[in-house]
Amino acid sequence: MIKFDVKVGKIGIEEGVHIIPMYEEDVPRPAVELPDNVKDLISKVAGRDFKGRLEEVYIIPTIVPGGPERIVLTGLGKRDELELDSFRRAYGRAALRIDESMSETAFAPIVSDVFDLESTTESIIEGIELSMYRFDRYRSEKKEQKLKHVTLLVNDESSLSKVKKSVEVAGKICRGVYTARDLTNMPSIDCYPEKFAKIVYEIGRRAGFKVRVYQVKEIEDMSMGGILAVGGGSIHKPVLIELEYDGTGGRNDRPYIIVGKAVTFDSGGISIKPSEKMEEMKYDKAGGAAVVGVLEALASLRLPIRVIGLIPCVENLPSGTAYRPGDIIRFRNGKSAEIISTDAEGRLILADALSYAVEKNPKALIDLATLTGACIIALGTHASGLFTNNQEIAEKIKRSGERTGERVWQLPLWKQYKEQLRSDVADLKNVGGRPAGAITAAAFLSEFVGETVWVHLDIAGTAYTQETSESKSYIPKGATGVGVRLIVDYLINEVEQKESK
Ligand code: BES
Ligand code: MN
Ligand code: ZN
Asked: Cα-flanking dihedrals φ and ψ of residue 44, to 5°?
Protein backbone atom coordinates (compact mmCIF):
# COMPACT_ATOMS: atom_id res chain seq x y z
CA MET A 1 0.00 0.00 0.00
CA ILE A 2 1.02 3.61 -0.51
CA LYS A 3 2.39 5.95 2.12
CA PHE A 4 0.54 9.26 2.18
CA ASP A 5 1.66 12.61 3.58
CA VAL A 6 -0.35 15.78 3.79
CA LYS A 7 1.04 19.28 3.69
CA VAL A 8 0.13 22.83 2.88
CA GLY A 9 1.51 23.76 -0.49
CA LYS A 10 0.95 24.51 -4.11
CA ILE A 11 1.50 22.41 -7.16
CA GLY A 12 4.49 22.99 -9.35
CA ILE A 13 6.84 24.89 -7.09
CA GLU A 14 8.88 21.92 -6.02
CA GLU A 15 10.79 19.17 -7.77
CA GLY A 16 9.08 15.89 -8.33
CA VAL A 17 6.13 14.44 -10.16
CA HIS A 18 2.99 16.52 -9.93
CA ILE A 19 -0.54 15.34 -10.65
CA ILE A 20 -2.76 18.07 -12.06
CA PRO A 21 -6.49 17.37 -12.37
CA MET A 22 -8.07 18.98 -15.44
CA TYR A 23 -11.63 19.62 -16.55
CA GLU A 24 -12.65 18.67 -20.07
CA GLU A 25 -13.38 21.69 -22.23
CA ASP A 26 -12.41 22.92 -25.69
CA VAL A 27 -9.33 24.16 -23.91
CA PRO A 28 -9.08 21.96 -20.80
CA ARG A 29 -8.81 23.92 -17.59
CA PRO A 30 -6.97 23.02 -14.38
CA ALA A 31 -9.22 22.19 -11.41
CA VAL A 32 -6.70 23.75 -8.99
CA GLU A 33 -4.73 26.97 -8.85
CA LEU A 34 -1.37 26.88 -10.56
CA PRO A 35 1.70 29.11 -10.84
CA ASP A 36 2.11 30.92 -14.17
CA ASN A 37 5.08 28.90 -15.41
CA VAL A 38 3.10 25.68 -15.08
CA LYS A 39 0.04 27.25 -16.72
CA ASP A 40 2.21 28.22 -19.68
CA LEU A 41 3.47 24.68 -20.05
CA ILE A 42 0.00 23.24 -19.94
CA SER A 43 -1.32 25.70 -22.50
CA LYS A 44 1.05 24.18 -25.06
CA VAL A 45 -0.77 20.83 -24.96
CA ALA A 46 -4.22 21.56 -23.57
CA GLY A 47 -6.89 21.15 -26.24
CA ARG A 48 -4.50 19.52 -28.66
CA ASP A 49 -2.70 16.48 -27.27
CA PHE A 50 -4.86 16.44 -24.19
CA LYS A 51 -8.63 16.96 -23.94
CA GLY A 52 -9.25 16.34 -20.25
CA ARG A 53 -11.56 13.39 -20.78
CA LEU A 54 -12.15 11.25 -17.71
CA GLU A 55 -9.15 8.97 -17.13
CA GLU A 56 -7.17 10.54 -19.97
CA VAL A 57 -3.59 11.14 -18.87
CA TYR A 58 -0.84 13.20 -20.46
CA ILE A 59 2.69 13.42 -19.11
CA ILE A 60 4.78 16.54 -19.69
CA PRO A 61 8.46 16.24 -18.86
CA THR A 62 9.64 19.70 -17.81
CA ILE A 63 12.82 21.62 -17.43
CA VAL A 64 11.59 24.40 -15.19
CA PRO A 65 14.59 25.12 -12.94
CA GLY A 66 13.77 24.11 -9.39
CA GLY A 67 10.25 23.27 -10.52
CA PRO A 68 8.52 19.96 -11.18
CA GLU A 69 10.36 17.34 -13.19
CA ARG A 70 7.13 15.96 -14.57
CA ILE A 71 3.59 17.15 -14.84
CA VAL A 72 0.94 14.51 -15.06
CA LEU A 73 -2.29 15.92 -16.43
CA THR A 74 -5.25 13.78 -15.52
CA GLY A 75 -8.73 14.27 -16.95
CA LEU A 76 -11.72 14.67 -14.66
CA GLY A 77 -14.20 14.91 -17.53
CA LYS A 78 -16.67 17.77 -17.83
CA ARG A 79 -17.13 19.99 -14.81
CA ASP A 80 -20.92 19.67 -14.81
CA GLU A 81 -20.66 15.87 -14.89
CA LEU A 82 -18.21 15.71 -12.00
CA GLU A 83 -18.91 13.07 -9.33
CA LEU A 84 -16.85 11.71 -6.46
CA ASP A 85 -16.12 8.75 -8.68
CA SER A 86 -14.40 11.10 -11.17
CA PHE A 87 -11.70 11.67 -8.53
CA ARG A 88 -11.23 7.95 -7.92
CA ARG A 89 -10.90 7.33 -11.62
CA ALA A 90 -8.70 10.31 -12.49
CA TYR A 91 -6.25 9.98 -9.61
CA GLY A 92 -6.24 6.19 -9.98
CA ARG A 93 -5.34 6.48 -13.65
CA ALA A 94 -2.60 9.01 -12.89
CA ALA A 95 -1.19 6.71 -10.21
CA LEU A 96 -1.08 3.79 -12.65
CA ARG A 97 0.78 5.86 -15.24
CA ILE A 98 3.23 7.21 -12.69
CA ASP A 99 3.86 3.69 -11.42
CA GLU A 100 4.48 2.54 -15.01
CA SER A 101 6.89 5.37 -15.60
CA MET A 102 8.96 4.22 -12.63
CA SER A 103 8.55 7.16 -10.28
CA GLU A 104 8.54 6.50 -6.57
CA THR A 105 6.86 9.63 -5.34
CA ALA A 106 4.25 12.09 -6.48
CA PHE A 107 2.46 15.24 -5.36
CA ALA A 108 -1.30 15.50 -5.66
CA PRO A 109 -3.47 18.54 -4.96
CA ILE A 110 -6.94 18.20 -3.48
CA VAL A 111 -9.76 19.87 -5.39
CA SER A 112 -11.52 21.54 -2.51
CA ASP A 113 -14.17 23.72 -4.12
CA VAL A 114 -16.72 21.18 -5.34
CA PHE A 115 -17.56 18.50 -2.78
CA ASP A 116 -16.75 18.50 0.91
CA LEU A 117 -13.09 18.12 1.73
CA GLU A 118 -13.46 14.77 3.52
CA SER A 119 -15.33 13.00 0.73
CA THR A 120 -13.00 14.38 -1.93
CA THR A 121 -9.91 13.33 0.00
CA GLU A 122 -11.30 9.86 0.63
CA SER A 123 -12.12 9.43 -3.05
CA ILE A 124 -8.63 10.49 -4.10
CA ILE A 125 -7.04 8.04 -1.67
CA GLU A 126 -9.35 5.26 -2.80
CA GLY A 127 -8.53 5.94 -6.43
CA ILE A 128 -4.80 5.82 -5.87
CA GLU A 129 -4.76 2.95 -3.40
CA LEU A 130 -7.25 0.68 -5.12
CA SER A 131 -5.70 1.16 -8.57
CA MET A 132 -2.42 -0.23 -7.24
CA TYR A 133 -4.04 -3.55 -6.24
CA ARG A 134 -2.55 -6.65 -7.87
CA PHE A 135 -3.26 -10.32 -7.36
CA ASP A 136 0.16 -11.68 -8.25
CA ARG A 137 0.93 -14.21 -5.56
CA TYR A 138 0.77 -17.02 -8.13
CA ARG A 139 3.11 -15.34 -10.61
CA SER A 140 6.75 -16.33 -10.70
CA GLU A 141 7.78 -12.89 -11.85
CA LYS A 142 6.06 -10.18 -9.89
CA LYS A 143 5.97 -6.63 -11.14
CA GLU A 144 7.29 -4.45 -8.40
CA GLN A 145 5.15 -1.50 -7.33
CA LYS A 146 7.23 1.55 -8.10
CA LEU A 147 4.97 4.27 -6.77
CA LYS A 148 5.33 4.22 -3.00
CA HIS A 149 4.76 7.68 -1.69
CA VAL A 150 2.20 10.39 -2.40
CA THR A 151 2.08 13.83 -0.82
CA LEU A 152 -1.33 15.46 -0.81
CA LEU A 153 -1.31 19.23 -1.05
CA VAL A 154 -3.91 21.34 0.73
CA ASN A 155 -4.53 25.08 0.56
CA ASP A 156 -4.38 26.08 4.19
CA GLU A 157 -3.40 24.97 7.70
CA SER A 158 -7.01 24.78 8.78
CA SER A 159 -7.75 21.84 6.47
CA LEU A 160 -4.70 19.84 7.51
CA SER A 161 -6.18 17.85 10.34
CA LYS A 162 -9.43 17.12 8.48
CA VAL A 163 -7.56 15.84 5.47
CA LYS A 164 -5.16 13.76 7.57
CA LYS A 165 -8.09 12.12 9.28
CA SER A 166 -9.73 11.32 5.93
CA VAL A 167 -6.50 9.83 4.62
CA GLU A 168 -6.38 7.52 7.60
CA VAL A 169 -10.03 6.49 7.33
CA ALA A 170 -9.82 5.83 3.58
CA GLY A 171 -6.63 3.80 4.00
CA LYS A 172 -8.32 1.50 6.49
CA ILE A 173 -11.33 1.01 4.25
CA CYS A 174 -9.06 0.24 1.29
CA ARG A 175 -7.27 -2.37 3.40
CA GLY A 176 -10.68 -4.06 3.80
CA VAL A 177 -11.26 -3.89 0.05
CA TYR A 178 -7.85 -5.51 -0.54
CA THR A 179 -8.82 -8.34 1.79
CA ALA A 180 -12.13 -8.89 0.01
CA ARG A 181 -10.41 -8.88 -3.38
CA ASP A 182 -7.72 -11.31 -2.22
CA LEU A 183 -10.18 -13.80 -0.77
CA THR A 184 -12.40 -13.59 -3.84
CA ASN A 185 -9.51 -13.95 -6.30
CA MET A 186 -8.03 -16.98 -4.53
CA PRO A 187 -8.38 -20.14 -6.61
CA SER A 188 -10.71 -22.70 -5.09
CA ILE A 189 -7.95 -25.31 -4.80
CA ASP A 190 -6.35 -23.15 -2.11
CA CYS A 191 -9.47 -21.60 -0.67
CA TYR A 192 -11.97 -24.27 0.29
CA PRO A 193 -14.24 -23.73 3.33
CA GLU A 194 -11.82 -24.87 6.02
CA LYS A 195 -9.06 -22.75 4.50
CA PHE A 196 -11.32 -19.74 4.00
CA ALA A 197 -12.18 -19.95 7.70
CA LYS A 198 -8.54 -20.19 8.67
CA ILE A 199 -7.67 -17.08 6.68
CA VAL A 200 -10.58 -15.20 8.25
CA TYR A 201 -9.46 -16.29 11.69
CA GLU A 202 -6.00 -14.85 11.07
CA ILE A 203 -7.39 -11.59 9.77
CA GLY A 204 -9.65 -11.31 12.80
CA ARG A 205 -6.79 -11.91 15.18
CA ARG A 206 -4.73 -9.18 13.57
CA ALA A 207 -7.52 -6.64 13.03
CA GLY A 208 -9.27 -7.16 16.34
CA PHE A 209 -12.58 -8.92 15.74
CA LYS A 210 -13.77 -12.28 17.05
CA VAL A 211 -14.05 -15.26 14.74
CA ARG A 212 -15.87 -18.44 15.58
CA VAL A 213 -16.00 -21.35 13.16
CA TYR A 214 -18.83 -23.88 13.36
CA GLN A 215 -17.88 -27.29 11.95
CA VAL A 216 -20.21 -29.91 10.44
CA LYS A 217 -21.07 -31.47 13.80
CA GLU A 218 -22.23 -28.12 15.16
CA ILE A 219 -24.02 -27.22 11.92
CA GLU A 220 -25.96 -30.46 12.37
CA ASP A 221 -26.78 -29.56 15.95
CA MET A 222 -27.99 -26.18 14.70
CA SER A 223 -30.36 -27.90 12.22
CA MET A 224 -28.95 -26.11 9.22
CA GLY A 225 -30.09 -28.48 6.51
CA GLY A 226 -29.31 -26.04 3.70
CA ILE A 227 -25.62 -25.70 4.48
CA LEU A 228 -25.29 -29.45 5.08
CA ALA A 229 -27.00 -30.38 1.81
CA VAL A 230 -25.04 -28.00 -0.40
CA GLY A 231 -21.76 -28.78 1.33
CA GLY A 232 -22.31 -32.53 1.19
CA GLY A 233 -20.87 -33.16 -2.25
CA SER A 234 -17.34 -32.03 -1.58
CA ILE A 235 -14.54 -33.67 0.32
CA HIS A 236 -14.08 -30.23 1.85
CA LYS A 237 -16.62 -29.94 4.64
CA PRO A 238 -18.81 -26.85 5.00
CA VAL A 239 -18.36 -24.33 7.80
CA LEU A 240 -20.36 -21.45 9.19
CA ILE A 241 -18.15 -18.55 10.17
CA GLU A 242 -19.36 -16.03 12.73
CA LEU A 243 -17.46 -12.76 13.09
CA GLU A 244 -18.10 -10.18 15.71
CA TYR A 245 -16.80 -6.70 16.21
CA ASP A 246 -18.08 -4.77 19.19
CA GLY A 247 -16.93 -1.18 19.38
CA THR A 248 -19.55 -0.20 21.93
CA GLY A 249 -17.49 -1.20 24.94
CA GLY A 250 -19.61 -4.23 25.75
CA ARG A 251 -22.91 -2.32 25.96
CA ASN A 252 -24.37 -5.27 24.09
CA ASP A 253 -26.40 -3.11 21.72
CA ARG A 254 -28.63 -4.84 19.21
CA PRO A 255 -26.16 -5.75 16.45
CA TYR A 256 -26.13 -5.00 12.77
CA ILE A 257 -25.72 -8.32 10.98
CA ILE A 258 -24.05 -8.73 7.60
CA VAL A 259 -24.40 -12.10 5.90
CA GLY A 260 -22.25 -13.11 2.92
CA LYS A 261 -22.56 -16.05 0.56
CA ALA A 262 -19.27 -17.92 0.30
CA VAL A 263 -19.45 -20.77 -2.17
CA THR A 264 -15.74 -21.38 -2.64
CA PHE A 265 -16.53 -23.03 -5.97
CA ASP A 266 -19.91 -23.36 -7.63
CA SER A 267 -19.87 -26.13 -10.24
CA GLY A 268 -23.64 -26.28 -10.03
CA GLY A 269 -23.43 -29.69 -8.31
CA ILE A 270 -25.49 -32.52 -9.87
CA SER A 271 -27.28 -29.83 -11.91
CA ILE A 272 -23.85 -29.13 -13.33
CA LYS A 273 -23.07 -25.90 -15.13
CA PRO A 274 -21.80 -25.74 -18.71
CA SER A 275 -18.01 -25.66 -18.69
CA GLU A 276 -17.78 -22.36 -20.53
CA LYS A 277 -16.76 -19.65 -18.03
CA MET A 278 -17.07 -22.11 -15.17
CA GLU A 279 -13.70 -20.84 -13.92
CA GLU A 280 -15.50 -17.65 -12.90
CA MET A 281 -17.32 -19.60 -10.20
CA LYS A 282 -14.35 -19.20 -7.88
CA TYR A 283 -15.77 -15.69 -7.45
CA ASP A 284 -18.91 -17.17 -5.87
CA LYS A 285 -17.36 -16.45 -2.46
CA ALA A 286 -17.37 -12.69 -3.04
CA GLY A 287 -20.25 -11.99 -0.64
CA GLY A 288 -18.48 -13.74 2.23
CA ALA A 289 -15.21 -12.05 1.31
CA ALA A 290 -16.90 -8.65 1.45
CA VAL A 291 -18.18 -9.39 4.95
CA VAL A 292 -14.61 -10.08 6.07
CA GLY A 293 -13.43 -6.83 4.51
CA VAL A 294 -16.20 -4.89 6.24
CA LEU A 295 -15.38 -6.31 9.68
CA GLU A 296 -11.69 -5.69 9.18
CA ALA A 297 -12.30 -2.06 8.23
CA LEU A 298 -14.70 -1.44 11.12
CA ALA A 299 -12.29 -2.94 13.62
CA SER A 300 -9.36 -0.85 12.47
CA LEU A 301 -11.56 2.27 12.39
CA ARG A 302 -12.72 1.44 15.91
CA LEU A 303 -16.21 2.49 14.95
CA PRO A 304 -18.51 2.64 18.00
CA ILE A 305 -20.96 0.04 16.76
CA ARG A 306 -21.69 -3.66 17.17
CA VAL A 307 -21.60 -5.74 14.01
CA ILE A 308 -21.88 -9.48 13.47
CA GLY A 309 -20.79 -11.13 10.24
CA LEU A 310 -22.14 -14.53 9.18
CA ILE A 311 -20.58 -16.51 6.37
CA PRO A 312 -22.03 -19.84 5.33
CA CYS A 313 -19.13 -21.36 3.44
CA VAL A 314 -19.39 -24.43 1.20
CA GLU A 315 -18.06 -25.96 -1.98
CA ASN A 316 -20.78 -27.01 -4.44
CA LEU A 317 -19.62 -30.14 -6.27
CA PRO A 318 -21.27 -33.22 -7.77
CA SER A 319 -20.31 -36.58 -6.23
CA GLY A 320 -21.77 -39.71 -4.72
CA THR A 321 -22.50 -37.81 -1.54
CA ALA A 322 -23.95 -34.72 -3.23
CA TYR A 323 -27.53 -33.58 -2.74
CA ARG A 324 -29.82 -34.07 -5.70
CA PRO A 325 -32.76 -32.55 -7.54
CA GLY A 326 -35.92 -33.89 -5.90
CA ASP A 327 -34.37 -33.91 -2.43
CA ILE A 328 -36.30 -32.12 0.28
CA ILE A 329 -34.32 -30.33 2.94
CA ARG A 330 -35.24 -28.54 6.15
CA PHE A 331 -33.72 -25.25 7.29
CA ARG A 332 -32.98 -23.90 10.72
CA ASN A 333 -36.28 -22.00 10.95
CA GLY A 334 -38.24 -25.21 10.28
CA LYS A 335 -39.26 -24.47 6.70
CA SER A 336 -38.65 -27.09 4.02
CA ALA A 337 -37.65 -26.81 0.38
CA GLU A 338 -37.80 -29.12 -2.60
CA ILE A 339 -34.63 -28.99 -4.65
CA ILE A 340 -35.31 -28.35 -8.32
CA SER A 341 -31.74 -27.40 -9.17
CA THR A 342 -28.65 -27.99 -7.09
CA ASP A 343 -27.25 -24.92 -8.85
CA ALA A 344 -29.63 -22.66 -6.93
CA GLU A 345 -27.47 -23.32 -3.87
CA GLY A 346 -26.79 -19.80 -2.61
CA ARG A 347 -30.32 -19.24 -1.35
CA LEU A 348 -30.15 -22.56 0.54
CA ILE A 349 -27.09 -21.71 2.58
CA LEU A 350 -28.32 -18.15 3.09
CA ALA A 351 -31.67 -19.45 4.34
CA ASP A 352 -29.94 -21.06 7.31
CA ALA A 353 -27.67 -18.09 7.97
CA LEU A 354 -30.55 -15.59 7.78
CA SER A 355 -32.71 -17.72 10.10
CA TYR A 356 -29.88 -17.79 12.60
CA ALA A 357 -29.26 -14.04 12.23
CA VAL A 358 -32.91 -13.22 12.94
CA GLU A 359 -32.66 -15.03 16.28
CA LYS A 360 -30.12 -12.43 17.38
CA ASN A 361 -32.71 -9.67 16.97
CA PRO A 362 -30.54 -7.40 14.79
CA LYS A 363 -31.21 -3.71 14.22
CA ALA A 364 -30.77 -4.40 10.54
CA LEU A 365 -29.84 -7.42 8.47
CA ILE A 366 -27.99 -7.12 5.17
CA ASP A 367 -26.89 -9.96 2.93
CA LEU A 368 -24.49 -9.89 0.01
CA ALA A 369 -24.47 -12.70 -2.53
CA THR A 370 -23.44 -13.52 -6.08
CA LEU A 371 -26.88 -15.05 -6.22
CA THR A 372 -28.25 -15.11 -9.76
CA GLY A 373 -27.23 -14.89 -13.38
CA ALA A 374 -30.68 -13.36 -13.81
CA CYS A 375 -29.53 -10.29 -11.90
CA ILE A 376 -26.84 -9.78 -14.54
CA ILE A 377 -29.53 -10.09 -17.21
CA ALA A 378 -31.65 -7.48 -15.41
CA LEU A 379 -29.05 -4.85 -14.47
CA GLY A 380 -25.87 -5.82 -16.25
CA THR A 381 -22.59 -5.10 -14.54
CA HIS A 382 -23.20 -1.47 -13.52
CA ALA A 383 -25.26 -1.98 -10.37
CA SER A 384 -26.00 -4.55 -7.71
CA GLY A 385 -29.60 -5.61 -7.29
CA LEU A 386 -31.27 -4.37 -4.12
CA PHE A 387 -34.27 -6.07 -2.53
CA THR A 388 -35.85 -5.16 0.77
CA ASN A 389 -38.80 -5.38 3.12
CA ASN A 390 -38.08 -1.88 4.46
CA GLN A 391 -37.88 1.23 2.30
CA GLU A 392 -36.07 3.37 4.86
CA ILE A 393 -32.95 1.23 4.94
CA ALA A 394 -33.14 0.83 1.16
CA GLU A 395 -32.90 4.60 0.72
CA LYS A 396 -29.90 4.77 3.06
CA ILE A 397 -28.07 2.09 1.10
CA LYS A 398 -28.92 3.79 -2.17
CA ARG A 399 -27.31 6.97 -0.87
CA SER A 400 -24.22 5.02 0.17
CA GLY A 401 -24.21 3.57 -3.32
CA GLU A 402 -24.07 7.02 -4.88
CA ARG A 403 -21.35 8.24 -2.51
CA THR A 404 -19.11 5.20 -2.93
CA GLY A 405 -19.76 4.58 -6.62
CA GLU A 406 -20.92 1.07 -5.69
CA ARG A 407 -24.30 1.63 -7.21
CA VAL A 408 -27.39 -0.37 -6.38
CA TRP A 409 -30.77 -0.54 -8.09
CA GLN A 410 -33.93 -1.67 -6.39
CA LEU A 411 -36.19 -4.34 -7.84
CA PRO A 412 -39.67 -5.08 -6.49
CA LEU A 413 -40.51 -7.88 -4.08
CA TRP A 414 -44.27 -8.07 -4.54
CA LYS A 415 -45.95 -11.01 -2.90
CA GLN A 416 -47.09 -12.37 -6.27
CA TYR A 417 -43.52 -13.49 -6.99
CA LYS A 418 -43.74 -15.98 -4.15
CA GLU A 419 -46.30 -17.96 -6.11
CA GLN A 420 -43.51 -19.07 -8.44
CA LEU A 421 -41.89 -20.82 -5.48
CA ARG A 422 -44.85 -23.05 -4.58
CA SER A 423 -43.99 -26.71 -4.33
CA ASP A 424 -46.29 -29.75 -4.45
CA VAL A 425 -44.34 -31.53 -1.74
CA ALA A 426 -42.60 -28.93 0.46
CA ASP A 427 -43.05 -25.38 1.80
CA LEU A 428 -41.01 -23.96 -1.08
CA LYS A 429 -39.09 -25.04 -4.11
CA ASN A 430 -35.66 -23.58 -4.69
CA VAL A 431 -36.22 -22.36 -8.26
CA GLY A 432 -39.07 -20.20 -9.50
CA GLY A 433 -38.50 -20.61 -13.23
CA ARG A 434 -36.91 -18.21 -15.69
CA PRO A 435 -39.10 -15.11 -15.31
CA ALA A 436 -37.75 -12.63 -12.75
CA GLY A 437 -35.06 -15.02 -11.56
CA ALA A 438 -33.26 -12.46 -9.42
CA ILE A 439 -36.52 -11.48 -7.73
CA THR A 440 -37.74 -14.99 -7.04
CA ALA A 441 -34.35 -15.75 -5.48
CA ALA A 442 -34.81 -12.73 -3.21
CA ALA A 443 -38.39 -13.81 -2.51
CA PHE A 444 -37.01 -17.17 -1.40
CA LEU A 445 -34.68 -15.42 1.05
CA SER A 446 -37.51 -13.24 2.35
CA GLU A 447 -39.08 -16.40 3.78
CA PHE A 448 -36.28 -16.52 6.33
CA VAL A 449 -36.09 -12.98 7.67
CA GLY A 450 -39.53 -12.54 9.24
CA GLU A 451 -40.17 -8.93 10.27
CA THR A 452 -36.49 -8.05 10.62
CA VAL A 453 -35.39 -4.96 8.68
CA TRP A 454 -33.56 -6.60 5.80
CA VAL A 455 -31.77 -5.80 2.56
CA HIS A 456 -30.53 -8.34 0.05
CA LEU A 457 -27.84 -7.29 -2.41
CA ASP A 458 -27.33 -9.46 -5.47
CA ILE A 459 -23.74 -8.76 -6.51
CA ALA A 460 -23.47 -11.34 -9.33
CA GLY A 461 -22.83 -8.57 -11.88
CA THR A 462 -20.57 -6.38 -9.76
CA ALA A 463 -18.37 -8.73 -7.72
CA TYR A 464 -15.83 -9.28 -10.48
CA THR A 465 -15.08 -7.68 -13.80
CA GLN A 466 -16.86 -9.19 -16.78
CA GLU A 467 -16.88 -8.38 -20.50
CA THR A 468 -19.36 -5.54 -20.12
CA SER A 469 -17.91 -4.09 -16.91
CA GLU A 470 -16.99 -0.45 -17.29
CA SER A 471 -13.23 -0.17 -17.27
CA LYS A 472 -12.19 1.94 -14.28
CA SER A 473 -8.65 2.70 -13.20
CA TYR A 474 -9.21 1.68 -9.61
CA ILE A 475 -10.95 -1.60 -10.45
CA PRO A 476 -8.41 -4.03 -11.88
CA LYS A 477 -9.51 -7.24 -13.61
CA GLY A 478 -10.90 -9.93 -11.35
CA ALA A 479 -12.50 -9.38 -7.97
CA THR A 480 -13.73 -5.84 -7.30
CA GLY A 481 -14.27 -6.08 -3.54
CA VAL A 482 -17.75 -4.64 -4.07
CA GLY A 483 -19.81 -4.22 -0.94
CA VAL A 484 -17.01 -3.29 1.43
CA ARG A 485 -17.04 0.45 0.78
CA LEU A 486 -20.81 0.43 0.41
CA ILE A 487 -21.56 -1.25 3.74
CA VAL A 488 -18.86 0.59 5.67
CA ASP A 489 -20.25 3.89 4.38
CA TYR A 490 -23.75 2.84 5.47
CA LEU A 491 -22.53 1.89 8.95
CA ILE A 492 -20.46 5.06 9.40
CA ASN A 493 -23.58 7.05 8.60
CA GLU A 494 -25.62 5.00 11.05
CA VAL A 495 -23.16 5.95 13.78
CA GLU A 496 -23.10 9.63 12.79
CA GLN A 497 -26.87 9.78 12.65
CA LYS A 498 -27.15 8.26 16.09
CA GLU A 499 -24.56 10.62 17.54
CA SER A 500 -26.30 13.69 16.14
CA LYS A 501 -29.58 12.68 17.81
N1 BES B 1 -23.45 -18.39 -8.35
C2 BES B 1 -24.52 -18.50 -9.27
C3 BES B 1 -24.96 -17.15 -9.82
C4 BES B 1 -23.99 -16.46 -10.74
C5 BES B 1 -24.03 -16.69 -12.10
C6 BES B 1 -23.08 -15.55 -10.25
C7 BES B 1 -23.15 -16.04 -12.92
C8 BES B 1 -22.18 -14.91 -11.08
C9 BES B 1 -22.22 -15.15 -12.42
C10 BES B 1 -25.72 -19.14 -8.59
O11 BES B 1 -25.43 -20.08 -7.61
C12 BES B 1 -26.49 -19.87 -9.65
O13 BES B 1 -25.97 -20.80 -10.18
N14 BES B 1 -27.71 -19.41 -9.91
C15 BES B 1 -28.52 -20.01 -10.90
C16 BES B 1 -29.91 -20.11 -10.36
C17 BES B 1 -30.84 -20.90 -11.20
C18 BES B 1 -30.46 -22.36 -11.21
C19 BES B 1 -32.24 -20.73 -10.69
C20 BES B 1 -28.48 -19.10 -12.12
O21 BES B 1 -28.45 -17.88 -11.96
O22 BES B 1 -28.45 -19.63 -13.23
MN1 MN C 1 -25.16 -22.03 -8.43
ZN1 ZN D 1 -23.63 -19.86 -6.68
From this structure: -75, -25
Residues 111 and 180 in one domain: no
CA 118/CA 404 separation, integer angstroms:
13
Q: Ligand 1 pocket: which residues have CB below 6 Å?
A: 266, 284, 341, 343-346, 370-374, 431, 437, 460
In a domain, 163, yes or no: no
Last residue of a domain, one of 82, 105, 132: 132
pLDDT at 63 over 90: no
Ligand 1 mutation pick, 271, 272, 340, 372, max ligand atoms within 8 A of CB: 372
Which-ligand-closest: CA of 462?
Answer: 1
Q: Say which residues have a Cβ less than 8 Å from residue 419's Cβ, sequence separation at least 6.
A: none
Residue 81 lies in a domain: yes
Whether 116 and 214 share a structural domain = no
Q: What is the DSSP string of 9-66?
A: --TTSSSSEEEEEEE-SSS-EESS---HHHHHHHHTTBTTTB---TT-EEEEE---TT
- Co-location of 203 and 271 in the same domain: yes
* Spacing, Cα 211 to ligand 2 middle (Å): 27
Ligand 2 midpoint to CA 320 (Å)? 18
Assess contact for 174 and 125: CB atoms under 8 A: yes
Do 354 and 469 fall within a single domain?
yes
Show which residues are catalytic.
273, 347
Is the same domain home to 106 and 250? no
Q: How far is the CA of 138 from the centre of ligand 1 (A)?
A: 27
* Secondary structure (3-state) at 496: helix
Residue at 152 is within a domain:
no
Output the 3-class SS for 239-299. Answer: EEEEEEEECCCCCCCCCEEEEECEEEEECCCCCCCCCCCHHHHHHHHHHHHHHHHHHHHHH
Q: Grade residue 65 by pLDDT with cuts at 50, 70 and 90.
A: confident
To the nearest whole number, what is the mean pLDDT of the chain?
97
| Structural domains of the chain, count | 2
Nearest to 286 by CA among 169, 213, 354, 188: 188
- Spatial separation of the C-alpha atoms in residues 493 and 266, rounded to whole Å: 35
Nearest atom in ligand 1 to 271's CA: 18
At which of 132, 163, 182 does a domain end? 132
Q: Which of 65-79, 108-122, 278-292 has the lowest mean pLDDT?
A: 65-79
State pTM to two decimals. Answer: 0.98
Query: Which residues span the domain enclosing 459?
Result: 174-500
The string of pLDDT tens digits covering residues 446-477 is 999 999 999 999 999 999 999 999 999 999 99
Q: How confident is the model at residue 68 (pLDDT cuts 50, 70, 90)?
A: confident
Whole-number Å distance between alpha carbons of 180 and 171? 14
Give percent above pLDDT 90 in the chain. Answer: 94
